[in-house]
């Protein structure tokens, strides 16, 4: 009885320790945020085995295919679907009791060339293109119906230039803005229970935020079946500010839409879209100063996420660890950005401790 009492007392004391003082090796991000929202990660088939898989299942309870469900990889020819990679990701999630976010049904990039051309190489009509979009969305969504709870239906349709709302993509050139409405309608018809999202980047920058809001309001007012907006979250130690992030969440959720952060990473460099190569004298080491700045930015954004847990329904990181991320190649090829919560050895960084060290509600 005495030994049992000592054990109970130890457990009681442990439960009152702050998160940082508890054993982070046995608790994952998903466990700390169990009362807030799912914590996800973008994956490829190669990350579903070995050390990466162990980290994924320990830390996360949701996964997103990084590339496997984009139209080009999954539907490279009109008469052929390449299901192997996407199936392996969904099956991994099913085996491990994880949610899946589908990404993405309609985008202007990683789109197969056949989609916009007829047999003679001429640009197809709007009717033909919308029918092909319908066939694609219906086939893909139906295959994973009941296994994928949310879809990024339309990705990055708003232009970067302030002079226009919608990007002048082939989708827009052929269909006008109708392709956006139809994509949501096709997805909803295929799976009425799936949550459907519009997904974009720079959603916190005030000028682009307003144009995204214009698009979303138009869709909501027209009663298009859209349920949420994805803030990609490709951020840095320099942006967004607290006011910018709060304003974006409040602006979009005012439309009755749920908010998810869908592609989170925080680079130690400012965004430099027009610079492609690393400078020879550039120091790309993870210095103590950069480490502290990243810690503070991660701490800030997660504090804000928790404040809006009534409208935020998911946070997804765009990479497992610093070992390998898309930022190794873009926008500045060959430069390490160190954007994740886990280092190149897959170990938690100090920023991880900042994210999980909070008073549980």
Helices and strands in order:
Layout: H1 2-15, H2 29-32, E1 39-43, H3 50-59, E2 62-65, H4 71-74, H5 84-95, E3 99-107, H6 126-143, E4 150-155, H7 170-175, H8 178-190, E5 195-200, H9 206-221, E6 228-231, E7 234-236, H10 242-253, E8 258-267, H11 288-307, E9 312-317, H12 350-356
Parallel strand pairs: 1-2, 1-9, 2-3, 3-4, 4-5, 5-6, 6-8, 7-8, 8-9
Entry summary:
Helices cover 38% and strands 15% of the residues.
Which residues sit in consecutive blocks of at least 5 with pLDDT less than 50? 1-24
Strand content: 5-15%
Number of strands: 9
Helix content: 25-40%
- SS element count, helices: 12
Number of domains: 1
- Considering the protein shown, what is the CATH homologous superfamily? Glycosidases
CATH classification, class level: Alpha Beta
Q: How do the strands line up in the largest sheet?
A: 1-2-3-4-5-6-8-9
User: Cα distance, first to last residue?
Assistant: 33 Å
Order of H and E elements: HHEHEHHEHEHHEHEEHEHEH
Largest sheet: 8 strands, parallel, barrel
**Remind me, CATH topology?**
TIM Barrel
Structural class: alpha/beta
Q: Quote the average pLDDT.
A: 93
Instruction: Give the name of the CATH architecture.
Output: Alpha-Beta Barrel
Any idea what the shape is?
A: globular
Radius of gyration: 21 Å
Would you kindly provide a written description of the structure presented here, covering whatever features stand out?
By secondary structure, this protein is α/β, with parallel strands linked by helices. It has a single domain, classed as Glycosidases (TIM Barrel, Alpha-Beta Barrel). It is 38% helix and 15% strand. It contains twelve helices and nine strands. It has helices at residues 2-15, 29-32, 50-59, 71-74, 84-95, 126-143, 170-175, 178-190, 206-221, 242-253, 288-307, 350-356; strands at residues 39-43, 62-65, 99-107, 150-155, 195-200, 228-231, 234-236, 258-267, 312-317. An eight-stranded parallel barrel has the order 1-2-3-4-5-6-8-9, surrounded by five helices. Helix 6 (126-143) runs parallel beside helix 8 and helix 11 runs parallel beside helix 12. The longest helix is centred in the C-terminal third of the chain and has 20 residues, at 288-307. 41% of the residues are buried.
């Amino acid at each position: 009885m005495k030994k049992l009492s000592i054990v109970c007392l130890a457990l009681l004391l442990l439960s009152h320790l702050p998160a940082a003082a508890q054993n982070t090796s046995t608790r994952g991000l998903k466990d700390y945020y169990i009362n807030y929202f799912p914590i996800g990660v973008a994956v490829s088939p190669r990350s579903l085995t070995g050390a990466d898989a162990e980290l994924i299942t320990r830390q996360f309870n949701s996964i997103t295919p990084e590339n496997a469900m984009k139209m080009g990889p999954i539907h490279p020819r009109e008469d052929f679907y390449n299901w192997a990679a996407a199936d392996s990701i969904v099956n991994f999630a099913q085996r491990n009791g994880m949610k899946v976010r589908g990404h993405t049904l309609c985008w202007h990039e990683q789109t197969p060339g056949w989609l916009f051309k007829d047999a003679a190489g001429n640009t197809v009509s709007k009717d033909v293109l919308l029918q092909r979009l319908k066939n694609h969305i219906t086939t893909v969504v139906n295959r994973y119906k009941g296994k994928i709870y949310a879809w990024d239906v339309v990705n990055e349709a708003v232009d970067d230039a302030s002079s226009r709302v919608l990007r002048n993509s082939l989708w827009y050139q052929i269909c006008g803005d109708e392709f956006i409405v139809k994509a949501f309608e096709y997805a909803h018809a295929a799976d009425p229970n799936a949550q459907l999202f519009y997904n974009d980047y720079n959603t916190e920058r005030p000028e682009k935020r307003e144009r995204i809001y214009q698009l979303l309001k138009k869709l909501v007012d027209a009663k298009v079946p859209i349920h949420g907006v994805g803030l990609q979250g490709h951020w840095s130690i320099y942006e967004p500010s607290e006011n910018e992030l709060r304003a974006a969440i409040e602006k979009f959720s005012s439309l009755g839409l749920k908010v998810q952060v869908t592609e989170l990473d925080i680079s130690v460099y400012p965004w430099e879209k027009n610079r492609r190569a690393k400078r020879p004298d550039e120091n790309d080491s993870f210095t103590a100063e950069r480490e502290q700045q990243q810690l503070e930015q991660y701490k800030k954004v997660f504090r804000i996420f928790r404040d809006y847990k009534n409208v935020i329904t998911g946070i997804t990181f765009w990479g497992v660890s610093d070992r390998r991320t898309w930022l190794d190649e873009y926008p500045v090829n060959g430069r390490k950005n160190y954007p994740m919560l886990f280092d190149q050895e897959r170990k938690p960084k100090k920023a991880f401790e900042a994210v999980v060290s909070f008073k549980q509600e």
